[in-house]
Amino acid sequence: MTEIIDDIERRRVAVQNELDAQKTQAERNRLGQFATPSALAEDILAFAATLLPNGQKVRFLDPAIGTGAFYAALRKTFSNRRIAEAVGFEIDAHYAVPATRLWRETNLRIHLADFTHAKSEPRFNLIVCNPPYVRHHHLENGTKEHLQLATLRASGLKLSGLAGLYCHFMGLSQAWMTKDALAAWLVPSEFMDVNYGRILKHYLLNHVTLLRVHRFDPNDVQFADALVSSAIVWIRNTPPPSHHKVSFTFGGTLARPNLSREISALALSQESKWTRFPRSGVRQRDDAPVVADFFQIKRGLATGDNSYFILSEDEIATRHLPREAFKPILPSPRYITDNEVAADLHGNPKIERRLFLLDTKLPEFEIKKRFPTLFDYLQEGKGRRLHERYLCQHRTPWYSQEERPPAPIVCTYLGRSDRKDKKPFRFILNASRATVANVYLAMYPTPRLAHAMERDHDLIRRAWEVLNHLTPERVLGEGRVYGGGLHKLEPKELGNVPVPEIAALLEHRELPAKQAELFAHHAL
Fold this sequence. Notes:
Helix content is 33%, strand content 20%. The radius of gyration is 27 Å and the shape is globular. The chain has 20 helices and 20 strands. A 9-stranded mixed sheet has the order 3-2-1-4-5-7-6-8-9, with helices on both faces. The protein is an alpha/beta fold. Helix 4 (69-77) links the parallel strand 1 (58-62) and strand 2. It has helices at 2-21, 25-31, 38-51, 69-77, 93-102, 141-155, 165-172, 197-206, 265-269, 306-309, 313-318, 364-370, 372-383, 390-393, 447-455, 459-468, 472-476, 491-495, 500-506, 513-520; strands at 58-62, 83-90, 108-112, 124-129, 177-188, 209-215, 230-236, 245-250, 259-264, 295-299, 310-312, 326-329, 340-341, 355-358, 409-412, 414-416, 427-430, 440-445, 480-482, 486-488. The chain folds into 3 domains: 2-269, Rossmann fold (3-Layer(aba) Sandwich); 292-358 and 402-520, Alpha-Beta Complex (Adenine-n6-DNA-methyltransferase TaqI, Chain A, domain 2); 360-400, no CATH class.
């Protein structure tokens, strides 16, 4: 029988590849259609077998079955005698019809239907699904309202309008589960960090028993055509026991993860970022000083069109544009090789790639009179309809920029964890008068730090050194991660990074050895 299933699975994979090739990448992205790799499906079903009682008959449901990767893995894992029933839903005939032909000699029943509209039948004890990864902005308002109401009725889960379709699949499925049923959801890990995920996390901690969250290494993207960091969420359809702990694992396989840690449900209910586990332990609630205590953090400015508003020295000279209408701006981080930017006599950055930002408040009639070459350049911008773009429309005049003074320290906004130093984010000491675009976070000293800097001019450098010596785990515990190891850090997230070392600098004291050891080992 295993040889027969292996043969069908080989044909299924070939059919899947052929069907995917018949659709554009944009089509599949919009519909959230990302096929589950066979090896991953088998890993998930093998682990499911360890969580089900020995000999228990399996009633299997996949609400988004596609061509049947999980069913193939089910047949490889469980004997025919144990599979009492197998049902799948598939909304797209493009996949459902070939899948029905492929599995017609088995007990799998595939419904060509929308699972979110199906009448629930609570008889399944094993649900395994890779639900459609459809972002909220691809859901029409009528669809959103239906999903929110249906999910609320099925599980008591009242999801935000910003939640993706996969969140609704998780909530809707509870009405199909028997008591103590097991479910495994292969979903984007973003719900663990974003605001809309708070309601889903509350549901997982209070309405069902959250058994385990396995997060894949973001450098190992599970779906080659989706920039998504994936996780497997394991739940049991029963209220959580008192003093419950959840297993968080990372990397490797389900059977042999690279990292693992148990976190109490109580601690999880107080954590806004679950992706910090299992690399870090539970954050110590000791009011440790954070970056926001010492720096006001703002995103760099969005110009509206970098190719137009940001020019090189040569471009400004060639066009005979007035230098007083421009101010220096740092280039992309890849052009800054050191973590320190010095300034020349005019305050311009002493770097090889020197760029300048068009930013003047002068009205056009005065520019036409005083700087005719700049006026001509503005007309070029109008010819490109830049003045009609959203950002430019909301500025007066349209070619001026939002206020973003030079910051003494800037932090990169995006970064990858596969750098040689394993630090996705860089803190750059900026001694120049250059501003920054939105590929950076600008860090301005708070009054507390600024007052101390008046007495100690070297303090900002020592604070910068502290920031650059932060462990990746401490910073990444506050940010978010995407597929391929791409990390992002928003201003509030950077502001939440604990930095007791900077507080110690201001107070002219050493960090206590016990606390220093605690932070050095990332047990935040």
